[in-house]
## 1
Amino acid sequence: MEKVINENLKLGEVVSIFPASSEIFNGYKVDYCCGGYDTLGQALKEKGLDSDKIIEELNREYNKFISSNAEYKDWRKEKPSNLIKHILRTHHDFTKKELREIDMLMFKILKVHFTAHKEELLTVHRLFGNLKIELEEHLIKEEEELFPLIEEFEHTKNEKILADIRKFIKDTEDEHDAAGDILKELERVTGDFKIPKGACTTYKLVYDRIHNLQNDLFIHIYLENSVLFNMI
């Protein structure tokens, strides 16, 4: 078996080499988006995980992926403007839609299940509200300020624009960390998005959709932190 993935690779590099590794990392609760600059070995050690076992699993699944002749786009080889278009169409649009629809469903279950699950629901409602505000402001700043600057720099190579971009990148990564912290707290409060006994279908739908939003945001943040920002 070819061993391409090793403990010295950064988490972001592993996902670039083998995109489906994101699912394996999700299963072990390894943060490859905000923590994409950490090495695989360092991340697994900090989580107290069996690094030999997981690296073996990653290489085994990677070899299956290569043998299947599956095609994937290595965004590191694309122009920044092409990656930005992909992020907008695939992740920004999805995030906006999910935030809007989850918000409506959240209010519904808060009203219906308030008496039975008051403490958990109030906490989840408050955390999701904070996440919604954080992400909506973040998306607009990227769309109206950061992304246009990156696209302009791609064409002009203007050093003043580059300096502005680098400042925006620092602020953007801080906002990514803040959103990631809220999601981790939501995961903790809900016991990994498990609904209470006796909860209705809508309750489950809300938790499932927050979980799906989390998984999509992990890929979204990885593409920005570990790929797009490294192109600059």
Note: The chain has a mean pLDDT of 93.
## 2
Amino acid sequence: MKSIGAAAIAATLVVAGCSSNGNADADGASGSGGGSVGKAVSHKIVGIDPGAGLMAAAERAVSDYGLSDWTLVEGSSAAMAVALDKAVKNEDPIIVTGWTPHWMFAKYDLKYLDDPKKSFGEDEEIRTVARLGLKEDAPSAYAFLDKFEWTDADMAKVMASVQDGQEPAEAAAAWAQDNAALIDGWVDGIEKGDGKTIKLAYVAWDSEIASTNVVAWVLENRLGYKTELMQVEAGPMWAGVAGGDADAMVAAWLPITHKDYAEQYEGKYEDLGANLKGTKLGLVVPSYMDVSSIEDLKG
């Protein structure tokens, strides 16, 4: 398995399709054999940020399924989305690393490739993690964070609004106004805070932008806190909470994606449990492609 950098994304956009008129030939996108599918996408899987847990899982899948002649393209989630959008508009074949929840599943007709070897593991959870001592320093904020839980459908509404061009804070506020009853349950019995600033760390994934902005809205508008949102990479996010530079995050993907960070900082943070259940990682293709399993890529 080879990895190439973000500079190769542009080339991937060009070669992802197997025909210049945007229609995949029958031996490419619609064929189920590994050789034909591989040829159709130039044996490339469009990935995201190097170092992401999803990329580590994708590398494991390449090894587990014997895809030694395939290249995992490193880039960013934004570059992956651009490549996917181009391919779908042209009805060209493409394989990307994907995860749920993500707005792309609402925008496009996509499917995960079956993973019988469980290279991507079982479904994950997004968990809330707080710094040690937050319960004593900001009990109302802690109590709310401990109760915060929503669904992928809730999250998708905020993500879709942001994807359509709305500012994240505005999208969160609009969602909050439409879901006052749910928020009432989150803050029921919790006294207002004392106006302290709560620092929330998050990674720049669409899902975490959505959840962090909703949490910030509730802390500010329902509990009387101020908030500071700290956008960082996954490693600094965990280090910030573990070291006390951030108060909490609602962006911990476990047990797979952030496994190494959770183990590295074990004992230096408090896990408040899942705020969203049933997330998924894997290889994703447009539904018009006649391929159903990662095993079908070999050949």
Note: The longest strand covers residues 269-286.
## 3
Amino acid sequence: MFAGCAAVTGSQPGNGSGVLAPQSQYDSIITDNQGSPLSINQLAEKLAPADVVVIGEYHGHHGAHLLQALLQSALYQQRPRQVLSMEQFTLDNQSELDRYLAGKTGEEELIADADAWSNYKASYRPLVEFSKRRGIPVIAANAPADIVRCVGRNGVYYLDQLDARRRIQLPDEPFLDTPAYRKKFFAALGGAHGSDQDSAKPGKRLENSYLAQLLRDNTMADRVVGALAENPGHQVVHLTGTFHSEDRLGMVAALEKQRADLKVAVVSPVFWQAGDDLDSLVEAHKGKGDYLYFLQPLPTQYKSSERQRDAMMAQFREAGEYSCD
């Protein structure tokens, strides 16, 4: 059993399961969706038959990234014919990622040339390095960032103006969705935008934001399908933000629409708040994944609503620098 991902038992007031809450930001408690605790190795054994293992994450959470790295290694022991697929790189940077894996560039060159996320070294380096040392293919699975932004700004027809070289890289059907995901997406925006009425008839800006989300999901699904075609008999381990995969929605629903024959397993994170107990958490969240892992919550980003608003406006200004002409 690996430290950091153990199902630790003991006595805790009000916790009928006898499982202690995660004790640090690195700790996670793993269960199946019925609440039975599992070690990393036990989880890997259960996941071994899957064609695709989708590991949802809270971006930047130490415990989530530690679990991903440990689970990748444990799955490799079960099935060494593995492919790592990552939301954290976009498909137009696949060549830069391949050059790094082949030893032709250094890590700083990868980070610069492949536009790696700012938390690459702390969060994703272990998984990429594990793959590099073992010759495991790594798939840059996300849609190009500029195309996603411009769909979010201009809508579905933006794809019609792409040149053929770029358009062919994207899925044939880039906006496949499900009613449940649509409802969930608009509910996540908060306020009145979460109503059924607004999810059915949102404003243009909100609808375009949803289309941009679908483009990410369908592109990731398409890339996973392509990875399986190029690597028959391999198991794909796909990393993504949990919203893209939990409840078997998002990229999981898109993947299952493309390939209903695939065995897809979803591992989803859940925050363990002060006062929670395992039994209640599992009951409330068991639909999120075939397997769950429980983490300490991330720190509150802002206490000042004014500073939060300023930060959001800065992000919008940065996005506005891109031309969609």
Note: Residues 50-264 form a domain with the Rossmann fold fold (CATH 3.40.50).
